[in-house]
Design goal:
This is MmgE/PrpD family protein. It holds the Pfam family MmgE_PrpD_N. The protein has about 500 residues and is of the alpha+beta class. Helices cover about 45% and strands about 10% of the residues. The chain is built from 20 helices and 8 strands. The chain has helices at about 20-30, 40-55, 60-70, 95-110, 130-140, 140-160, 175-190, 190-205, 220-240, 255-260, 295-310, 325-330, 350, 355-365, 375-380, 380-390, 395-405, 445-455, 465-475, 480-485, and strands at about 5-10, 85, 95, 265-270, 315-325, 390-395, 415-420, 425-430. The strands form 3 sheets. A 4-stranded mixed β-sheet has the order 6-5-7-8. Strands 1-4 form a two-stranded antiparallel sheet. Helix 1 (about 20-30) packs across helix 8. The radius of gyration is 22 Å and the shape is globular.
Length: about 500
């Protein structure tokens, strides 16, 4: 039933009607009152738990502390009850756009939540903070929140299936602004015209270069999706007040496709659910067992396997070549030509995007830890640096083909490793998908999401708080408006004080 929307550039004198624009069709999907399938509801619950897990683990990190204080410096606006901020007391609330900002940074800081990879990249769980913040602010119930999240996931995943931003060095959050705006529109029950204007504004304000993920990667990497979520909330607010957006935002001769993507002769086919078709996109996404860029997940599992087998001593390695997809080679591999990816003094954000570093540490340690694997001491260890600099990547056409395959059985994010030892011995192995992937050795299920939450939350949340949140999250579609307003995590006394935020303008 899926409809392929054909997207191309139109001259101004063609006067493309809004009903023919991609932003309008996105809005139509958002306004379709189709019910959310039970398995989709189940996965939405999993991802709400997953987001809270990684947010808990990042509560005391400096970028999260700074963003949290910014939100707290913007108190609840008139006309609503505001939204909760991760870590803070439930009664201490911020205006929804700033809560979306703070919570979005907390979720994204450790690069540890769900992912979808196709023509482009995405972390569709980034839709949860802005949609949840608005739900709390307006007093929506759990059923409305579920419908909004189903739309957010669907739109972002559909855009990622069809439109590559990375090729043009545009940051992938340009797909997040429209999806979050659409999800908020569904949550609020807005009409197609209003959501259309909000989608256009959200896209227009969230297109930026990809330098945030290149070279020495800064703390903005975690802020970028939070900014997109904040812009989506503000775009919806403006659209509800009757304000309009640049149009046609995708198709115009001075629009996104013509000048930021494939140019005036470009054409894309974007798959969107037909009227009455359930929004099931979330089921094609996958979460992370390890706190590292998704394309490193399978490689960590393969390194762990090689370590456990003990077939060779890493100290005896002459070279390691990871034969993999185009994206992996050029984004987190040696094909990026970023010297920072081999620098033991590089930032955590940079190491997270260095598969040579990640594979070296996982091979030596037999696993991965969201904190310990990134410490300066760990990155600077002499034997690690020596091994790290012997690891390179190479693009393999077959792994690139599998990366882009639309057949879920074929689609893969791993590759083949060739280890050459000093004595000339060659050891080869391969892995297609991470162990936690739906087709992997140990697919993540509800108990795994709960286990991940308990592990990451235990150092910063009281036991009773852990149980309180899990109870609410697992009853998500049945929650009352008051219970939705409690859907947050509250840190143990003293935890937030241990990470004071620097003073800014506010």
């Amino acid at each position: 039933m899926t409809v392929q929307h054909h997207l191309r550039v139109h001259r101004s004198d063609e006067n493309l009607e809004r009903e023919g624009q991609l932003a309008w069709h996105i809005a139509e999907v958002a306004t379709d009152p189709v019910a959310v399938d039970a398995d989709v509801v189940d996965m939405i619950i999993n991802r709400v738990i997953d987001n809270a897990s990684v947010a808990a683990a990042s509560l005391t990190r400096r970028p999260v502390s700074a963003a949290r204080q910014q939100a707290l410096d913007h108190p609840v606006s008139v006309g609503g009850t505001g939204a909760t901020v991760f870590g803070c007391a439930l009664e201490r609330r911020s205006s929804p756009e700033w809560a979306a900002w703070a919570n979005g940074v907390a979720v994204r800081e450790l690069d540890y939540h769900d992912t979808f990879l196709a023509a482009d990249y995405s972390h569709p769980g980034d839709n949860i903070p802005p949609i949840l913040a608005v739900a709390q602010h307006v007093g929506a119930d759990g059923g409305a929140l579920v419908r909004g999240l189903a739309t957010g996931y669907e739109i972002q995943i559909d855009l990622v299936r069809a439109i590559c931003l990375h090729k043009h060095k545009i940051d992938h959050v340009a797909h997040l602004g429209p999806s979050a705006a659409a999800g908020i529109g569904t949550l609020l029950g807005l009409d197609t015209e209003t959501i259309f204007q909000a989608v256009g504004q959200a896209l227009h304000t969230t297109t930026a270069t990809r330098q945030s993920r290149k070279g020495e990667i800064s703390t903005w990497k975690a802020h970028a999706p939070a900014f997109a979520g904040k812009m989506a909330v503000e775009a919806v607010d403006r659209a509800m007040r009757g304000e309009t957006s640049p149009s046609p935002i995708y198709e115009g001769e001075d629009g996104v496709v013509a000048w930021m993507l494939d140019g005036k002769d470009a054409a894309y086919d974007v798959p969107l659910p037909a009227a009455g078709e359930p929004k099931r996109g979330i089921l094609d996404s996958y979460t992370k067992e390890h706190s590292a860029e998704y394309q490193a997940q399978a490689w960590i599992d393969l390194a762990r396997k090689l370590h456990d087998e003990g077939a060779f001593d890493p100290a005896d390695v002459q070279s390691i070549v990871l034969h993999t997809s185009h994206h992996t080679h050029y984004v987190i591999g040696s094909g990026a030509n970023d010297p920072q990816k081999y620098d033991p003094t590089a930032s955590r954000e940079t190491l997270d995007h260095s598969i040579p570093y990640i594979f070296a540490v996982a091979l030596q340690d037999g696993g991965w830890h969201h904190v310990d694997s990134y410490t300066p001491e760990r990155a600077g260890r002499e034997d690690t640096v020596a091994l790290w600099h012997k690891i390179t990547t190479a693009e393999d056409a077959e792994w690139t083909r599998r990366y882009h395959s639309e057949d879920p059985i074929e689609k893969a994010f791993g590759g083949r490793v060739v280890v050459t030892l000093a004595d000339g011995t060659v050891i080869e192995d391969e892995i297609a998908v991470a162990d936690a992937h739906p087709l992997g050795a140990r697919p993540f299920a509800r108990q795994d999401y709960i286990r991940k939450f308990r592990i990451l939350a235990e150092p910063v949340l009281e036991p009773a708080e852990i149980e309180r949140f899990l109870d609410l999250a697992q009853r998500l579609p049945e929650l009352t408006a008051d219970e939705v307003r409690q859907l947050s995590i509250v840190a143990k006394p003293g935890v937030l004080a241990s990470a004071p935020a620097p003073k800014g303008l506010f």
